[in-house]
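Hello forum,

I keep getting stuck at the same step: I have a sequence, I want structure tokens, and every attempt I make locally crashes halfway through. Rather than fight my setup again tonight, could one of you with a working pipeline run this one for me? It's a single chain of 145 residues.
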Amino acid sequence: MEDAVGRGTFPQVSPIPILLLENNPGEVLRFKQILSADKRREVFTIVHLSRLEIAANYLAGRPEGPMVIITSLFLPDSRGLEIVRRLRESGPDSVVVALYQIRDRAVMGSLLAAGADLCLDRDLLARDFEQTIRHLIGHSAQSEG
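Reply #2:
Ran it on my machine without issues. Output:
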């Protein structure tokens, strides 16, 4: 897991708004189960979209402010770095988490340079996810202060 700092001021809101950008139905179900694992309280609110163009329009017109964006790097209408760049343009104050399957430092470095705040192995998403996101959001708020 790479450490990174958010680019904008992320409000301290609860539940934390999440945009899940994924087109594989099995992965969507798995991520939603992971993100709603704590039944005692609602930690995250989840919006699921499966195409970059729709996500970019959604983020650009979102009056509620920034979100945590969890994105696949393989979508029907885009791939890799282009996804991260468009998400960063459309949601400049959002926290972008790029999910990868093959650990490659050069690829992770390129994703971070393109605007990702964090590169995360999709198989490790469940481990300490809430803590990781809260850490990123905290860094995001501190980077503006």
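The beta strands are 16-21, 44-49, 68-71, 74-75, 78-79, 95-100, 118-121. If your local run keeps crashing, start a new thread with the error log.
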